[in-house]
Amino acid sequence: MRRTLHTLLLVATAIASTACHGEAPETETTPAPASTSASPETAPDPRDQYALAHAIEEARRSYDDLEAALARTRAAWIDREYRWELAYVPALCGPTGPCVALPFDHLRDPEHPIRQGWLPRLELEPAQRRQLAARCEGQTRCVLDLSGRLSQLELSTERPPSLTLSDIEVHGARPSRDDESWILGSRRTVAARAPEPAVIKAG
Prior knowledge:
30% of the residues lie in helices and 18% in strands. By secondary structure, it is of the alpha+beta class. The protein has one domain (49-191): CATH 2.40.50. β3 (142-154) and β4 (162-175) form a beta hairpin. α2 runs antiparallel to α3 (66-77).
């Protein structure tokens, strides 16, 4: 009985002490302010489609180790963002189905023609397709300034290269100029590579 009374006395003393002095205030933790500085955007890889064509051509010259050379080229280009100029042709990019673009202006360097037959596939939302059709209405070829991620790149020893650009943003569109030829074998391309006729002077 005495032990019980002693315990009750201790409990009562503790309660009274807490009531008199109060509990220690809790320390409030102020959250750190959120950073207002946005992380800088990653600039697109400066290499263009002509550099890719050159890299593929160089890899294909590695006859002794062709598969490994193509694999190294793919690893150096895949999953990077690029900003390229490509030719949009309405017949190759309709409201539905695959959408491909013409990658090369063959008058850019007519002395070194590009003979690789690949057409980049463009992953576009339906709204983007409608916007491109409106921008390029009435034009046979419309040159797009766009950026996108090279999400798919297949380099085979037996098949032409295959590639896809995803997460596309179109920065601008313009008509194809007279000093451009986005079709290999067109009259302008052939004329640009034709040798100058020999001039025979009368003796």
